[in-house]
Design a protein that fits this description.
Elements lengths: L1 E2 L5 E2 L4 E6 L8 H4 L3 E7 H4 L2 H11 L8 E6 L5 H20 L12 H20 L7
Antiparallel strand pairs: 1-2, 3-4, 4-5
């Protein structure tokens, strides 16, 4: 189990880790050692529909059409550190998706705000009116 919050944890059966060769510099080591981690999390199966919808908005292109979240970590030289980095990113994304958005409370502008808006519109209209062609009388 991967703990996300005290009340919620991700079951390991929904997480698959593959170790691949990391891109970028690293000398001979980069061609021999599979230190990068590709973490695949079956979000559709593991999360409730509202949480999954929020995760889809947060994950963007990292979420496949099948509902699998794909995270790649290759910033460290060791496989273990990359694995920890990928899991940390997964926990962070899921933790953010678990928080429901605050409902918007509709408000109305005050009377003074309406008056201020209309006064500024009248002032702007007067400025534009003054820009008209000059007439000879």
């Amino acid at each position: 189990m991967i703990a996300v919050t005290p009340e919620f944890a991700i079951d390991e059966i929904h997480v698959v880790e593959r170790f691949v060769r990391a891109p970028g510099p690293g000398g001979q080591n980069v061609n021999k050692v599979a230190s990068a981690v590709q973490l695949r999390f079956d979000a559709r199966a593991a999360l409730s529909p509202p949480v999954f919808r929020r995760l889809r908005g947060l994950a963007g292109s990292r979420l496949t059409a099948e509902g699998v979240l794909v995270l790649t970590a290759h910033e460290h030289r060791s496989q273990e550190m990359n694995r920890a980095a990928a899991r940390t990113r997964l926990v962070d994304l899921v933790r953010r998706a678990l928080v429901p958005p605050r409902p918007r409370i509709a408000t109305r502008p005050s009377l003074s705000e309406k008056r201020k808006r209309l006064d500024s519109k009248k002032a702007r209209a007067a400025v534009k009116r003054m820009r008209g062609a000059v007439r000879d009388e």
